[in-house]
Amino acid sequence: MSRLRIATATGVHAVGTILPQLVGLAVLDATDYGHFSAIYLTYALGVSVVSSTVGDAWIVTARTGGELASWRDYATALGWVAAVCGVIVALVSVLTGLGTGVVLVAGGGAALMLYYDGARFHQGHRDRWGRVLTGDVMVVVGFALGWGAGHLADQHGLVSLLLAWTVAAAGGILGVVRPFVGTPARARRWMVHHQRAVRTLVADATMMNIGSIGTPYLLLVPMNLHQFGLYRAVSNVSAPARLVLSPLRPVIAGMTRTRLHSVPLVGAVLAAAGFFGTAAALALVWIELVPLPLGVISQIGPYAVPAGLYVAGNVIGEFFYMVVRFHTGRAALWSGRVVETLLAVVGPVLGWIVGGLSGAVWGYALATTAFGVVWMWIGLRGTRGR
Known about the structure:
- The chain folds into two domains: 2-207, no CATH class; 237-382, no CATH class.
- Helices cover 83% and strands 0% of the residues.
- It contains 15 helices and no strands.
- It has helices at residues 2-27, 30-63, 71-95, 100-125, 129-152, 158-176, 184-193, 195-220, 225-236, 239-245, 249-253, 257-260, 263-289, 304-327, 330-382.
- It comes from Georgenia soli.
């Protein structure tokens, strides 16, 4: 029963995670999707910050001889870190030119979703998967209710999407925990007690964030919001593939050396990459030709080939990154991250300089495919003979 709950919760959580991105692709025009992407990227940075300063720091400190902090201490640190990240999301929203009401919803929604993310991690580690599943279901239900409420209030597009995201986060929190936030002094004590783990984890996460989050921010400067929306839409075409890959994390973690090096496994990963990449490219062409009354996704048909290439490379990279993370040493993981970061920065930026938006998209696709192959090589080499 516990395994079924874990598997179900993982699947429902994956759906709740990609819902905002998929709905945004379907209903927002390129400019509004540019606004949403800037907001969501900042939220993604917040996820990394929360993980490094609260969730993972909680586990690492306990495993290195420290005391496993109580829920109230954990929740206090989580609440204040999430609130600070929410303020940063609001500031980014202001810089992209959004109005006061939308800024408040964006910042509040991000803070609530970050609190939910951290609370879910806590309950999962405590093996309270019934509560985790309840929270995950509440996120999906809350998103649907928030989306409907937005339309009833005659709020459409970006505003309705952000309202749905906020209601989803609030529902998830109420489903997974009894919320609590203590004083700032209590949060400071948390940081002092966990400072060694926090420093290590922040340094570790920074390498990944430079490429995955820093590069889009860098490109947001020369691009206008319309171009940025198109650029980010291409990357989010991989959402269905990520939905399939996410539940495989525990499976990959438990694989044996023989299984990792089997021809059927490698062949299956490459076949899946080819399938998802081809399906993504054909879907974009079809949406453009019909045409369907959709949002920004109907405008990226001209980038169908690099989008398909990106999706294929992403499938290979995500799978074998998890192999490296779970089955090799720290040196192999860091070498892969260095290569990935360099490619993730150089590819899109050089592409933009040479060929504008089209060059950036192609640079991103080629870089993703290249570091997908690198992760595969490191994964197979690093687990050989074990």
